[in-house]
Structure formats: structure tokens, C-alpha cells
From TrEMBL:
Substrate binds at residues 32-35, 220. Its EC number is 2.7.1.6. The keyword Metal-binding applies. Belongs to the GHMP kinase family. GalK subfamily. This is Galactokinase. Keywords: ATP-binding, Carbohydrate metabolism, Cytoplasm, Galactose metabolism, Kinase, Magnesium, Metal-binding, Nucleotide-binding, Transferase. The gene is galK. Mg(2+) binds at residues 126, 158. Residues 90-177 form the GHMP kinase N-terminal domain. NCBIfam families: gal_kin, PRK05322.1. It holds the Pfam family GHMP_kinases_C.
Length: 390
């Protein structure tokens, strides 16, 4: 479909698209559920993502259409917008809602979106749509926003317009991603370091459990509240603003303040996972993929047993990966409750890994997973036509 987007735009709008933008999805290599706790995460942009084709119109309306969804929207240019049901177009509509608050002069725009990220898989299709829309509007209407300001705008869309209490990692990763690099991002200060991610003889396999999840309807917001409860308890003795400001040793000295066993488990995961990100950066810097893989397995175990955001489907993927000698590490990625897992698999063994996993998973779960291989790609930008039609 990617090769036919310009023809599809012509068919729908009876004119040529003038601009094409792309924003990737992301996977988080390690550092899960700590972005909203002020911790360190290590996402990377992938080569799957969202394409947005545009052309101006003289009707003073915004038209939203998608190759992936049947729902469309045509709405006049106005000073503010409200969420409209649960349709996909709320993500770009939310971006425009905050963009117009910046008093940018706008004109009508016809838009066509296409994403090759599996929807509901945990690969940040929503952040990809938000960021590509924010970037496109900033370019087309000379908004003057920095890339970081666009990231913050997209996060505000997710938190306030859509209503999901997510952190900034997803939007940051799809905006600032770099080819063959992971981003070690401090979610409190937004300082980041691009870490060389030389996978050598391995590739990144993305395994979609094909159990879709809707983040706003999951227990994600519940986990956020549990972490806030843990923080308030620790603040009785510690001068901290986020759980990730303390190391494991400090946490062990003060965890008696948290008397609820479930809340204690959540906080234990967060503090230890933050430490794992630091160790993972050292492992990658030293090309020690065996150690990086060990940390991936430890992360999954913590997410399964302490944070309780995994599930039979994600666990089945990691269980199988641990039996395959050509896999050095695997874990769930994203918010959990379904979605995707990732594995570091030897390049020449991807087919046998896929076959073995599919047989194991299908026997255990009752249906097959989908396996993708991805490169680590660049963040949001405008594409030349040949990049879409090649």
C-alpha cells in the first residue's frame, strides 16, 4: 500500500498531494513503566510508522481520511476542538486543537494517513500519528515550534485530549530517533544520549501477540496511581519528586513506609528497572549483547511478577525465546496487557525462530502471533516522493 499512497490521495481528493511526512513507531528496548516516574528509558525508532500526505484546500476545512480506518472527518477551521467519540482522527484533531491555541494562521487542509504499525500492538501508533501531524502543521504553517515543543504538545494531546496518563517516552522517541541508535532518555529532565546500538549478527524481532489492547481502557492509569501512592509514602522520609530519583539501596532502606504489598511491588519494579537501563547502556557500549539479553529477561520477569502488566500471550513469547539458543534476550515492550514483545535473534535464524515460536504460541494460546523484523530508524521528517513510491 505504501507504494500507492499518491494514487490513493488522488482518488480520494481529485488532486495531487503536495507534501508527504513520516513518523516512525517505536519499541522500548528496556526501561518499562518508568517514564511517568521520572526514570531512564531506552527506546528506539523503528522503520514501521505513519505516513501523512497533504494538500491545501480553499474550503476552510480540515479533512481527515485514512487507508487503515473507515471513519472520516470534515471539520471547519475553528478556535478549539473536542474529542469526538473514540475514532482514530481524535489524535490529529487533538494536535490541531493545541496548535491553533498558538494563534497560528491556518488554511484548509486535505489529509490522508496510512500506518504500517499494527494497531493496538504497543508500538506507539498513536504517538506516531500525533507527532507526524504536529510536525506537518509546524512545517506547513510556519509554526516556529521546536521539535521538543512539538513532543510536549503531542504528549498533552495524549494526556488531556485523549485522556491517557502516559509519559513522554513515545512521542520523544518517534521525534528524536536516530538510525542504529537507542535513546537513553531521562524522562524527568528530558536530557538524552544517543547510544550506539550495534546488534552485530542479531536483529530486532518484533512479535505481535495479536491480542489488541486499548491503553485508555487498560489498567495503565491504575498503575500510575499506585506509583503516586508509593511516592507519597516515601516522601515522608525522603525529599524526592519521582520514584526514580532513588537507587535500589536507598529504596531498600525506606520501603518499610509502603505498607500495601501491591503498591510495594509496583515501586520495587520501578526502582530496579531504572537501574537496569543504566546497566543496559553499559552493555551496549561494550557490545555485550549477552548481558543486554540477560537484562531483557530480568525486565520481563519484573513486569510479569511485580508490575503485573504482562499476560499469557506475552509470557508465551518470552518462554519460547528462552529455549531458543539463537535468541540472546526477550521481553514484553510497551505498556503490556497484550501488544508486542521483542527478541534479539540471530539474523540467519529468524525463519526457524518464527516457525518454532508460531508452533509453540499457537498450541498454548490458540492462534498465531505475527513476527516482524525491523531496523532501528530515524525520527519524524518530510519525505521526498521517491521515498514513498520506491
Amino acid at each position: 500500500m505504501k507504494n500507492n499512497l499518491h494514487q490513493e490521495f488522488q482518488k480520494l481528493y481529485h488532486k495531487e498531494a503536495q507534501h508527504t511526512f513520516f513518523s516512525p513507531g517505536r519499541v522500548n528496548l528496556i526501561g518499562e513503566h518508568i517514564d511517568y516516574n521520572g526514570g531512564l528509558v531506552m527506546p528506539c525508532a523503528i522503520t514501521l510508522g505513519t505516513y501523512m500526505l497533504t494538500a491545501p484546500n480553499d474550503d476552510q476545512v480540515f479533512r481527515f481520511k485514512s487507508v487503515n480506518f473507515n471513519e472520516t472527518l470534515e471539520i471547519p477551521i475553528q478556535n478549539s476542538y473536542q474529542k469526538n467519540g473514540d475514532s482514530w482522527f481524535n489524535y490529529p484533531l487533538g494536535v490541531i486543537h493545541y496548535f491553533v491555541k498558538g494563534s497560528q494562521p491556518l488554511q484548509g487542509l486535505d489529509m490522508l494517513y496510512y500506518g504500517d504499525i499494527p494497531i493496538g500492538s504497543g508500538l506507539s501508533s498513536s504517538a506516531s500519528i500525533e507527532v507526524v501531524t504536529a510536525f506537518a502543521f509546524n512545517e506547513l504553517f510556519k509554526g516556529g515550534f521546536s521539535k521538543l515543543e512539538l513532543v510536549l504538545m503531542a504528549k498533552k494531546v495524549e494526556n488531556e485530549f485523549i485522556g491517557v496518563n502516559s509519559g513522554i517516552m513515545d512521542q520523544f522517541a518517534v521525534a528524536f530517533g536516530e538510525e542504529n541508535k537507542a535513546l537513553m532518555l531521562d524522562c524527568d529532565t528530558l536530557d538524552y544520549e544517543a547510544v550506539d546500538c550495534n546488534l552485530g549478527d542479531y536483529l530486532l524481532a518484533i512479535i505481535n501477540t495479536n491480542k489488541p489492547r486499548k491503553l485508555a481502557e487498560s489498567k495503565y492509569n491504575e498503575r500510575v496511581k499506585e506509583c503516586q501512592t508509593a511516592l507519597k509514602k516515601l516522601q515522608l522520609e525522603l525529599d524526592i519528586n519521582n520514584l526514580c530519583e532513588i537507587d535500589v539501596q536507598t529504596f531498600d532502606l525506606h520501603k518499610h513506609l509502603i505498607t500495601d504489598a501491591t503498591v510495594l511491588n509496583r515501586a520495587t519494579h520501578v526502582v530496579a528497572e531504572n537501574e537496569r537501563v543504566k546497566l543496559a547502556a553499559k552493555a551496549l557500549a561494550g557490545n555485550n549483547l549477552k548481558e543486554f539479553g540477560r537484562l531483557m529477561y530480568a525486565s520481563h520477569d519484573s513486569l510479569k511478577n511485580l508490575y503485573e502488566v504482562s499476560g499469557a500471550e506475552l509470557d508465551a513469547v518470552v518462554e519460547y525465546a528462552a529455549t531458543d539458543k539463537n535468541v540472546t534476550g526477550a521481553r514484553m515492550t510497551g505498556a503490556g496487557f497484550g501488544g508486542c514483545a521483542i527478541a534479539l535473534v540471530k539474523k540467519d535464524s529468524l525463519d526457524s525462530f518464527t516457525q518454532g515460536l508460531t508452533e509453540y504460541y499457537t498450541a498454548k494460546i490458540g492462534y498465531a502471533p505475527s513476527v516482524y523484523s525491523s531496523l532501528i530508524g530515524n525520527g519524524v521528517g518530510e519525505l521526498h516522493e521517491e521515498a514513498v513510491t520506491k
